[in-house]
Amino acid sequence: MTKQELFNLSNNRFEAEKILKQSFGFDNFYDEQWRAIQRLLRGERILLIERTGFGKSLCYQFPAILFDGLTIIFSPLVALMRDQVKSLNQKGINARCINYEQSKEENEEALKLALTGKLKILYIAPERQENTEWLESVREMKLSMVVIDEAHTISVWGHDFRPAFKRIINLVKLLPIDTPVLATTATATLRTQKDIETQMGVGVKTIRGNLLRENFKLYVIETNSEDEKLIWIAKYVNKLSGTGLIYTGTRVDAEVYSRWLEFVGVNAIGYHAGLDSDSRKEIEKGLMDNKYKCIVSTNALGMGIDKSDIRFIIHTQIPQSPIHYYQEIGSAGRDGLTSHLILFFNSQLDSNNDYIDSELPKAFIETAKPNIETYQKVIDILKEEMLRESDILRKANIKQQIFRVIKADLIEQGIIKEMQLGRSKYYMYQPNAPELDTTKFEELKQFKLDEFNSMIDYVFTKQARMKFLCNYLGDEFSDNIKSGCDNTSEKKLTPIEDYQLREKLKEFHETYFPTIKCVQRYNNIIDGVAASYYGVSNVGATIHRCKYENGGDFPDFLVKQTLKAYRKKFGNKHIDFVMFVPPSISGTLVENFAKKIAQILDIPFSYAVEKIKETEPQKRFRNSYLKRDNVKDSFTINNTDVTDKTILLIDDIYDSGATLKEIGKILTKAGALEIVPLVIAKTVGSDND
Asked: Which pTM value belongs to this model?
């Protein structure tokens, strides 16, 4: 359509709804949907703040099919873009997406279609803004509209700010002023709203709707331990109607809770960002098809799933703010039917007189911005020479995610700049750069801590819980609350004592063993097993005492626990040799432990693996580059013949797995048929590196 035709249509809702019926199958727009669409058809810039399930996607999909060009939708929710592309294509609307879960060929094909004008809608993950090919291609596209979905991610005051997303605004600023731009979110405080408006430029109009969810039943259960949470869920989750989500604070918890529920016969499965793409897609499809009673997940799942009948959401860990909580429970009850929202909170106090369940969210807040010394370390390194990211990680000994936060802040403050040289990005210190300004960092950290304190207030509030959330979000429509909660019309929920489940839980703790990921190309090492997690039992404390406090050999209970793990995972596998990982500092601890295992299993013990280069303890290194560098070429195989042999390789702790993989590579070259890793404990953060 021409601009004049679009303007005329914006004044004719009847004609627009005829097109809506033909293209999308809906009879009419909500009034606020039509208000947003009218303005977009007229080329305006809109910030739309509406509750989850309102139908925000239609506000950009409908104008997109009318515009003479391409609409780009930036979205951090890969599952959502996948669902919407599928739905649009089924309606005959040519849409594609570009994201990290797709193959290089799929992304290249989508980009080609966009460049040749064969797409109406392109969904793209905002991180692609850092991709050189994308930056060059977008200049050649015929853009008719830009959409920023989950727009709170571009604001430092938003609950899910991501530095890379601010680059979307750089594109918006290059567009002609009459190019329509839509930013959408379900969760923006007034402060976040004003920041987004400022970033979008002059002339932005905000439409803020009613955030009230009257079909919600909200509860808080105060507990005294993690076990009480596990027992309550095992007892009652099957009694909740329909299917639902259980949110955990970490990947480890997602795994533990899902395995526990499977153990007691609940049809549950775990989901987190550490799973491969195919597994995530299969679980998402299972959720859509009601294959499971519940999905146990980190917040990697939920907001991007277009499922209208999620009947319950349980949080085992308190979120960082009321905004996080509103966002995450927003996936429930989009069909308007009753849904139950349950938040567990361990109200016991720790040694610092703080609530036990405050530890994790406060740790996330504290580490969201690295300490000032780390910023200065990066600055000093780049003062010396221009470097690639991998070189900076090695020199600074920091995690990749930490560097990317620092990088975004230093670029924004004009201290460093990013340069593309050939196929690589380099970072260089700016001549006459200003001093690092830390004022905003401290202000932001205090803001986040204040937000978390408000979440604690939600736990203990006596007012209607939905009113509390709406008031916090700046909703003007929350005076006449009708949704129920345990402070109004609903019964209070409390922990329960169930002897049978208590015994069942004890049995679970003694028989649940984490998998350790070791599989690599050109390496005959397989995925192994750990007897426990390092940080969630007395196993970690025992290992620490033996290694660092002269506590003697690892005690027999660790031998028994590790043998249980071995027998459950590999009990039917033939093993030719037991070998151990030569240590950096712990003397004969691992050697003696492996000997005990070999003796009990009656398998020959071998000293075939020898260390030929001194290494540092792996825990000193903060990224996988340095961990791999530390152990590279540090081992050899003596004159033991391992050809076609299956080897049980034993170590005490699994972190990145770099040491096991390096020895696996050496054994593979020596002719080993299979290397089977067995460790006492897996570190809690080992899958996140």
From this structure: 0.85
